UniProtKB/TrEMBL annotation:
Keywords: Signal. The lineage of its organism: Eukaryota, Metazoa, Ecdysozoa, Nematoda, Chromadorea. It comes from the Eukaryota. GO terms for cellular component: EMC complex. The keyword Protease does not apply. This is WD_REPEATS_REGION domain-containing protein.
Length: 395
């Protein structure tokens, strides 16, 4: 019996995925997810809502939304400690992630984190990555290589290798039409648009000129590519193949967005830009922000959330309504960390917000408009690289 117990423990310790029934048994395991770089709200079957988290330490995890406990976790090999996290997308059943070196795609079961498939895509390493899934196909870009798979197949239906290195790559979808956008090295200020046909082939569409194009100053969202140069915001409507320029009040330091809304952040304020088919891009309002504040758009595009270490502000996009609610301190005589990024959504009752601090401390809070209160549901400790390295050897 003792020998059997030792063998069982040895097998358990060799598994890199931690599942829901194991979460909480070892606190040192429970906290080791890493510093979140990307978070999406999700639902796994009939189970409770989840957070799909990709961290700077190349960890992909599913957290139970109500508790913050680990549903499952996968630690990838050779984490670099970069801040971007893994490139991934998802559908109803699976999560599709590109390996950090860009050589393969891994397909994970959303329910339990089990690896369903590993698909080779390139022999060369690359940080220029993009991935997109539809009802029938998986589209992957890594460096010079573009690959299209039918879902469930391990052999691609199409592979295209560019003769020139890419500096930018992204997929866009509208209805059943998928377009790949790329920028070639030394191509100056132009981007190339290609439609992906029903049989998976890449059909060149158009070359679009963008003044002073710089990929690091651009943001991808649904049908639009937004890029900044100084105080100028350039918005490319991918499917109408048009470029619109908007001159804002101050220099743009960062672009983010969701759906038809773009947030152009400056030093002291953020401009909310809305895009419609009828009117194009228009500035809806300006939101004052401080140096220690983070902001984001809710998934339903209804409001903008601004968070500091002391409070949460909610600004409605289509009305003059806004309110502020005070955050609860983590402990007496202990200040909340300054927020680095936030991820939020609005449900029928309140706002649900994940706040990632500069020290990588993670809090999940709900905000009630009627009571103007911020309720702390759970929190996770800040990230420690040394502890993570020790965990890699033990878990």
């Amino acid at each position: 019996m003792r020998l059997l117990l030792l063998v069982t423990i040895a097998i358990f310790a060799s598994v890199t995925a931690i599942f829901e029934d194991q979460a909480g048994k070892f606190d040192w395991r429970k906290q080791l997810v890493g510093c979140p770089a990307k978070i999406t709200f999700d639902k796994v079957g009939s189970k409770s809502d989840r957070l799909i988290v990709s961290t700077a330490q190349s960890v992909l995890a599913s957290l139970v939304l109500n508790t913050g406990n680990i549903g499952w976790r996968q630690i990838m090999e050779n984490p670099s400690g970069s801040t971007n996290g893994l490139t991934f997308t998802k559908d109803r059943e699976y999560i599709y992630s590109i390996s950090e070196d860009g050589r393969s795609v891994r397909v994970w079961n959303k329910n339990n984190g089990v690896l369903a498939h590993q698909l080779p895509i390139s022999e060369q390493k690359s940080e220029i990555q993009a991935i997109h899934v539809t009802n029938q196909r998986l589209h992957v870009a890594s460096g010079r290589t573009l690959v299209v798979f039918r879902l469930g197949d391990e052999k691609p239906v199409e592979t295209v290798i560019s003769k020139t290195e890419l500096t930018f790559s992204a997929f866009f979808q509208q209805d059943d039409v998928v377009i790949h956008v790329s920028a070639l090295k030394n191509a100056g200020k132009s981007i190339e648009l290609s439609k992906i046909t029903e049989d998976g082939a890449f059909e060149p569409l158009k070359t679009v000129e963008i003044k002073d194009f710089e990929p690091k100053n651009c943001h991808v969202q649904e049908a639009y590519l937004s890029c900044s140069t100084g105080s100028t915001l350039q918005i490319v409507d991918i499917f109408r193949q048009k470029v619109q320029k908007i001159q804002l009040e101050t220099e743009i330091l960062e672009i983010s967005g969701h759906g038809p809304l773009i947030l152009a952040r400056g030093a002291k304020n953020a401009q909310i830009v809305e895009i419609t088919a009828e009117n194009g891009a228009q500035v809806r309002k300006s939101v004052d922000i401080g140096a220690g504040e983070a902001l984001g758009i809710t998934e339903n595009h209804e409001s903008v959330i601004v968070t500091s270490s002391d409070a949460v502000r909610v600004v409605f996009v289509n009305s003059a309504t806004h309110f502020s609610a005070k955050r609860v301190k983590m402990a007496e005589n202990l200040e909340n960390s300054a927020p680095k990024s936030i991820f939020g959504r609005k449900n029928d009752k309140d706002w649900e917000i994940v706040i990632v601090g500069e020290d990588c401390h993670v809090e999940f809070v709900t905000v009630d408009q009627n009571s103007k209160s911020v309720n702390l549901e759970w929190s996770r400790e800040g990230f420690e690289w040394e502890k993570f390295e020790n965990c890699k050897k033990r878990c």
